[in-house]
Write a structure and sequence with these properties.
By secondary structure, the protein is of the alpha+beta class. The chain folds into two domains: 129 residues, Cell Division Protein Zipa, Chain: A, CATH 3.30.1400; 146 residues, ZipA, C-terminal FtsZ-binding domain (Cell Division Protein Zipa, Chain: A), CATH 3.30.1400. 37% of the residues lie in helices and 21% in strands. Helix 3 crosses helix 4. The longest helix is centred in the first third of the chain and has 36 residues. It is elongated, with a radius of gyration of 52 Å.
Amino acid sequence: MTDLHIALIALGAVFVLAVIGFNAWQERKAKGRAEKAFGAARGDALFEPAKPVERREPTIGAMPPVAPVAPAAEPRPAPEPRPAPEPQAEELEAPSGPAAEISSRIDTVAVILADDPIMKEQLDPLAATLRAHSTPVHIEGIVEEQWQPVESSARGSWRELRVGLQLASRAGPLGEEEIERFNAAIADFAASVSAVSQREAPATAAARARDLDRFCADADIEVAVNVIGQFGATFAATRVKQLALEHGMSETASGALVSFARDGSAEFVVRRLEDPASKSPSATYYSGITFALDLPNVSDPAGTLDDMIGVAQAFAGQLAGQLVDDNRRPLTEAGIASIRRSLEKIVQDMEAHGVPAGSPLARRLFS
């Protein structure tokens, strides 16, 4: 390469550098004018990190607050299928026959259902077991759509049976333990004959027994009036007996003098007045006599009271005695009226409890 060639190359390089420098100067000059016209320079959105800004939606005036929307409730799972309940006593409600005795008012009742008829002979072991209870037990079966006692039924087999254990008596209420024994006997028997049974919960039955006992305590009243001799006179036992027979009373095998109603039930009795002052009361002479009616067992307490007082007044007149109360105070018409009011109140309470005075239920409960 000649010196001329080298000189031309160097001159060309200088020219190119001059053009590049001129272009750079023109670019900076144009950028300065743009910044003056449009404000400060903005960063490149592709290379500079974006600054967080608050998002604001366009609105038209002030909007009322909106109540929060409750989250949608989760769908409830479908309930699991439950087994069909055991038959309840109410589901087998049938009218009681004339001789039926079981009542849920005074009994805890168990029901036995069998596919195959239960023979009378099969019930004998159950009956023997239940006789150990302190209160009466009755077994009844459905015959011609009526409950009838199995003992007196002409039928020899049953598919539906009910067994009633009396919850209380004059000795007091049944306890939960005894009711549990009753339920166990029923369950065992039902299993032995391939039957099912329904029984009352022992705690529930025991609570009903206590309530029934409280009712019995309030209603178990003996209404009594007395005839005593005046000035310490006594009555000959033979004379008392004679007067009783004359007034239509009867002497029982035990020697008691009883006035019976037409249905054969006892209305009132006549007995020797218990005299605490006499240490050895004589069997042949009485210091006084008592006329008493057992209110719960009398069908017509008010009418029986009137009859009893009438007989007592007749005795007093014929024995030269005096009608007195338990405190040996003369019994006036006002006193008799007070006795009648008390009696009527108890009779009403018994009616309200579904155990009317003198009814089969009352006579069973107050035996």
